[in-house]
Structures are given as structure tokens and as C-alpha cells.
What we know:
alpha+beta, two-stranded antiparallel sheet, 2 strands, about 25% helix
Amino acid sequence: MTKNRARTLMSGAVLGLIAVVSLSTVSRAETGQVAVIFTKGGFIVGIGGGEGVLTLRGKHYPFAVSGMSVGFTIGASDN
């Protein structure tokens, strides 16, 4: 590849990058509020679950969560 061809390719790549950057728009993330009640407990094998509500734009979206762990687990909690 000759130096002139390499310069042409590099210039085209830089101009393409500038075009892509100039056409992009700023995005803004939505903000909301989450409330969760989670209960867990176990001995060696732990399990947990709970429920919550996501509040976004004045609407409420209920959801459920669950999980399991294996390892050093002793006790119970309610958060």
C-alpha cells in the first residue's frame, strides 16, 4: 500500500468518525423510585424472595424477586 493511499484511507476514516459523532444525539435516562421487601434465610442452602414496586412517571409497576445460594449460610433476615 502506498503512502498516498494510506493517507486517503485514514482521512476517510477520520471524516466518517466525525460525521457519526456529529449526528449522534444526547439521551437522557429516566429516573424512578424502587421499594423492595426481601426475606431470606437458610442453613448451608439459602433461599430468599420478595416483592416490590417501581414507580415511574406516576405509574406503579409491581414485581417479584427470588434467589438461592449455596455455601456458608446460617440465619434469617427480613429487609
